[in-house]
Amino acid sequence: MAKIAIYHPWIHLKGGGEKVILELLKRSEHEIEVFTHHFNLDNTFEELEVYEDRINVLSDLGVEGQLTRGLRYAFAEMKEKIDLEGFDVLMTSVGDIGELILTRNSADYNLGYCHSLRATYDPESVVEEKSFLERQVYKTLIWGFSMVERLVWRRLDRVYANSDYTRERIVDSGLKDEEGVGVIHPGIEMQGRAEKGDYLFYPGRINRTKQQLEAVEVVEEVRDKGFDMDLKLAGAVDKETDYVQEVREEAGEKDWLSLEENVSDERMEELYRYSHTVLFLGRKEDWGLIPVEAMSYGKPVVSLNEGGPKEQVVDGETGYLCNVSEMPDNVIQLLKEDELYDTFSRKSHERAKKFTWNSFVKKFDQEVNELVGS
Predict the structure, then answer these.
(1) Which of 39, 170, 288, 300 is the right S-S partner for 344, CB 3.0 to 4.6 Å?
(2) Which band of pLDDT confidence, cut at 50, 70 and 90, is reported for residue 126?
């Protein structure tokens, strides 16, 4: 059994990083402790309370102010010295800002887990909602960070990406060669295959890259073609923006559209279970857990044909991979043909079994064992 330290900058949402930490704490055969600069149990997964004694807050930096937050964390990480005596492995969440902890910290083996490489690989997606001045500041900071990033990544013995898509981004960026990057897909909890519901559903954080307003247009076209379906949106709002307000206004104006913000896990499960088909329009998603979550309930998925969802959805078998303009007709196909829907539902449920948390943790533990010789 290895002793593993995990560094994740902040634990305050129900996001991919927080979920990976939770599942490793729950299921790994190794001894794990977590280090962070912010932990807010009120907004993240309630189950983390059980492991609170294994989550070490180095110094609470807060999460206020997107620009100032980045600077606070960058400086804190570069000067922080964690007591890693006795630890075999330091695993760091990389691809955002967490890798700066490697400036002064190292174990016998240093691993990285990359949830996203959006900032350095696709900076335009990060700055698109900023003012002109803010965009220039952010681009300058991202450029500076990318220079440091290349240096600290040299300290990583191996990096694991959450998808083949993220792995390609890492290799294309020159941060690591192909041999130095593996893939361990995040998992889901398998659910019982649900009955066919009576509304379309799009879960996901409410922001411009998720394209909720485009999903509204898709369903509007479905309705214009004679199919009287409602659309339910549900997801976290971690920052008030003009886009969030636009989505709220749309939901207030259309009686067939509803928006639920920051819903509980129980409510999210209910929304999945009683839906008909799940939409996914996230742009350039590194993984995008929503499609495979939907398939765990036996729900067909109509998704953008890009990013991580291409590794989850089997086009024409468990759903459709397409562009936005093709989505209405694909949704209508599933609404019209009961036999087709049932086939997609059955195959979706079966496909989801390939992406469980047990599989994720088993592969992670195997990789660690091979690395440290356990």
Answers:
(1) 300
(2) low
- How confident is residue 104, by pLDDT bands cut at 50, 70 and 90? very high
Rounded to 10 degrees, what is the CA torsion of 71, 39, 164, 120?
A: -10
Please, what is the average pLDDT of the chain? Answer: 93
Q: Which of the four pLDDT bands, split at 50, 70 and 90, describes residue 141?
A: low
16 and 152 together in one domain: yes
My answer on whether 158 and 14 are in the same domain is: yes
Classify residue 150: in a domain, yes or no. Answer: yes
Whole-Å CA distances, 333 to 177, 299, 301, 327, 337: 43, 14, 12, 10, 6
* Residue recorded with tokens 């929503």: 290
**Residue 249 CB-density burial (10 A; 0-12 exposed, 13-18 middle, 19+ buried):** exposed
Number of domains in the chain: 2
- Domain presence at residue 116: yes
Identity of residue 206: I
Tokens linked to 213: 């307003």
Range of the domain at 13: 3-187+356-372
Q: What are phi and psi of 192, to 5 degrees?
A: -70, 145
pTM of the model: 0.89
pLDDT attached to residue 236: 85
At 124, which CATH number? Answer: 3.40.50.2000
Q: Which residue in the block uniquely carries the two structure tokens 């400086």?
A: 75
Backbone Cα Rg of the chain: 21
Is residue 89 domain-shared with residue 235, that is, in the same domain? no
Q: What is the pLDDT of residues 321-332, one digit of tens each?
A: 999 999 999 999
Contacts of 325 (CB under 8 A, 6+ apart): none
Q: Helix H segments across the chain?
A: 16-27, 66-79, 118-121, 123-127, 132-153, 164-172, 212-224, 242-253, 265-273, 290-296, 327-336, 338-352, 357-372
Instruction: Return d(Cα 330, Cα 341) in angstroms, integer.
Output: 11
Q: At residue 144, does pLDDT exceed 80?
A: no
CA 195 to chain centre: 27
